[in-house]
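2024-03-11 09:14:02 INFO receiving multi-entity request
2024-03-11 09:14:02 INFO entity count = three
2024-03-11 09:14:03 INFO echoing inputs for audit
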Amino acid sequence: MIKINNLHCKVEAQDGEEKPILKGLSLEVPAGEVHAIMGPNGSGKSTLSYVLTGRDGYEVTQGEMDFSGEDLAELEPEERAAKGLYLSFQYPVEIPGVPTLTFLKEALNAQRTARGEEEMSAPDFLKLAREKAKAIGVSMDMLKRPVNVGFSGGEKKRMEILQALILEPKFLILDETDSGLDIDALKTVAEGVNTLRADDRGMLVITHYQRLLDYIKPDVVHIMADGRIIKSGGPELAHELEAEGYDKYLTEVA
Amino acid sequence: MGVITHTPAEQTLIDLLDGAEDWRAAAREAVVKFGLPTKRAEAWKWSDLRRATQGIEAAGVAGYRLDGSAIGPQITLGAGEEMMLDLTATAGVGIAALEIHVPAGQTARLIERHDLAAGAFVTARLEITLGEAATLERVVISEIDADAVGALRTRVVVAKHAKYRQSAVSFGSKLSRHETHVSHAGEGAEVDLGAVYLLAEGRHADFTSTVTHTGAGGVTRQLVKGAVAAHAQGVFQGKFKVEQAAQQTDAKMTHRALMLSDKAEIDAKPELEIYADDVQCAHGNALGAIDETALFYMRQRGLSEAKARAMLIESFLTEPLMLIESETLRERVTGLLRVRLGEMA
Amino acid sequence: MAAVKETIEDVKKLEADKYKYGFTTDVDTEVAPKGLNEGIVRYISAKKDEPEWMLEWRLDALKRFQEMAEPKWAKVDYPPIDFQDISYFAAPKAGAKYESIDDVPEEILKDFEKLGIPLKEQEVLLGVKGAAASAAEARETPKVAVDAVFDSVSVVTTFKEELAKAGVIFCSISEAMRDYPELVKQYLGSVVPTTDNYYATLNSAVFSDGSFVYVPPGVRCPMELSTYFRMNAEGTGQFERTLIIADKGAYVSYLEGCTAPMRDENQLHAAVVELIALDDAEIKYSTVQNWWPGDENGKGGVYNFVTKRGDCRGKNSKISWTQVETGSAITWKYPSCVLRGENSRGEFYSIAVTNGRQQADTGTKMIHLGKGSTSRIISKGISAGRSDQTYRGLVSVHAKAEGARNFTQCDSLLIGDQCGAHTVPYVECKTPKAVLEHEATTTKLSEDQLFYARQRGLDEEAATALLVNGFVREVLQELPMEFAVEAQQLLKVSLEGSVG
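2024-03-11 09:21:47 INFO inference complete, emitting structure
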């Protein structure tokens, strides 16, 4: 489903200086599988999520990113979204003045149009939103408020998953979805994610801690350091990491 | 200082005002002596009226109409009336003036539309007085020809316990100056000034205002938002003056604007002049481009860049329009904004 | 600088009441005849033994000045100045410059001592702790090199030799003209042109002395440099000129202090300060301005019309202005930064206190020309008594200054209902790739906080001082340590009698 080969990427910082962050990252996530990427701060995890979804300032200098047989690098962010690539942001963005429902309806229909599907009518959309919101415990009242404005950290993350439930993407990248969540909120969010698990859908779960992986069980765990995958293994790798810390793997790199 | 050579527009204005009385006489004298204001005049440093009126020569016809009919120099509104006030002008130099009075305790709504033809230069003056505990809502929709020049000045006297609420939207022109000068008596009186400017390529709009608090306990809220395309210029000059007697004044002024592309220009001067110590006065000014992070977030969800941009600009600009009481009217004005945004995309 | 040792009680004991620097020094002074004309300009130039090009420069400025009109846009009000009734040059009679510190007349040394300026190098080394301090302590006390300007003449510059070792030139501008004419010629007037504005033009014609600093490439100036200005002679004006150049990668921190005796008539001060920062250089310029503000009825006091401008000429250069303005009857002053270099940075931190009948119109200009240039403005104004204070600022971003950023915060505090506080910011932006934010508030001291402090036992004056210190803390933090202490005391003294 997603194939990344020897990916190099540099990022333009605030001061205009360019820094290489990804240094030859390779990774393959087939449909139906959930992969986790773990790594210390600054290893390039968030950069990977942005470069896959096409954020400005993240420049691929070498290597390939292939999504269901298509080269991602050439596509605009919204084209990637329409193809089914979804990023649950580490820090969901506040958009004052734009009600969440309006935003989602516009987004869903833009994606459908791009895929050559028919637009969803307003009543159908409302029905869909109501159903999915109920499933993840979000009130319709919240959906009428501007996107992410005034929401708590937990509410924002829940809203990210709700958006995924409504947009039904083919591939999800969950960037530090567990950060800022208490255990109850974490469970709710994980439940939402688990309902999205399907044979034709892949997932990449980026996390610093093993905790989230107790609730979203990965098929494969990768350890990332200094812009590369340095070790891959089964779910037991996450537990190993939790027990022993990153240092062991970092010294292996050095 | 030598004698100035008048431009044709100035000469026509002087002739039109020949033999006039009151403010017209003073205006004529000022034009005779100094000409129309240029950017060298402090209050006009970002709106050069003399330059903008070059090429305008003959006299035109300008005037106010109320609910479609011609009106005298003074009108009284009240008893919950909603009136449509139109300022229209043909090409050439025109003058329009009107006095509006809302008696004590009365409530009224005024919807004002500006329709100036190409080549028009209108200097207009509106004098509004609100009696004690009167309420007036004024909604101004300024859609004038790109090639028209408007110097539109409104003076509002707000008595104690009165409420004045103004929402203005301007799409600019060669030069569009919207001046509002409020004398605020305080003592429970409230003034709300909201304004929006959306300027397509090459247009200019200038919102200049002063609110003078003369009595204690007055409340003023001002929110002006704008978005400006290439070679367009947005100007905001706001001033709150709080006189010594106006203790416990609570006044807040905010101007925020988006620069939509290169060669856009925004100039701002949010001013406070305070002579009373027990006050809460604040102003904020923020200029920048569209939030790139929000733009990316929206595109990640599948919206096209153009669509995401339009949504962000619209939601940014409509905030001051929340002031408009009637939902239908608010929707209508928002609709106008949306159409213009569509044209600009 | 560590100038203030006295407690408030000591200050009160001084005959000068609230203005503790209001003594005059009894030295023989040579004062030029009053009046502004070509003759006086030639006299000043000759007194200072200047090269011909300098005289030409001055005469040109004088000619232009005579054609100019006094600016009227500032929100200050004062009777017209009779420029013919001012003496443009005053110097202690013993001669313009002293070979060594021992030659400086005892009275002047005593005067500076009263001001708390440790002039003698020995004293400086030992800081304020006196001779009893141990050698170890002495080493830890920061050194400050001082250029002291008395009326029109720089009387002594300390630490010259030690600075010379580092390659730093620190001397009076008259000496610089003689010893480093190429540097002066290259940079003088390159930031503030001769005819920049009315008072800068006047200064260009008649400036008498001031400080000159050159820090060579890559050098971090080993100590704080400082100038102390004092007006003493009656009926004189002071027109000093300061020029500071930080070459590539250099750093210098410069402190400026000013006082004047109490006099019934107004004294005119029109200085020009030019700063130039080349690539990766940084200049930090701090001022504590405490010119005589005049008495309660507005009689006397200094008219302070000053042009200060820094040019961030090189990439990544930085100029930071910090000012504490408590003195002068009239202040007209806008320390500015021209942010020409890519990624250059300008900062302006200001505390201005006006009391009595003082009027201040002060602020800054940040002109963004270079890509990625950033600026920050923090201004705290306190108006008390019957004073009037205006913050006037300009942030201008040119079309080419992509990535420019400015943040401005202007807060005004009013103490009493007879004063005024005004904010007049100008913002001009010509690129969408800039972010400019401005916030301003005008409030009075919180009754709740005052009561809280008083309930805990502080009297009203002490409580006010405490809260005012809190109000200005953000700016005080920017001052070098020794200056911050002095500034805090100064605030306290300046606000005395403003409550109750």
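2024-03-11 09:21:48 INFO post-check: Confidence is low (pLDDT under 50) at residues 1-17, 118-142 of chain C.
2024-03-11 09:21:48 INFO post-check: Chain C has one domain: 8-447.
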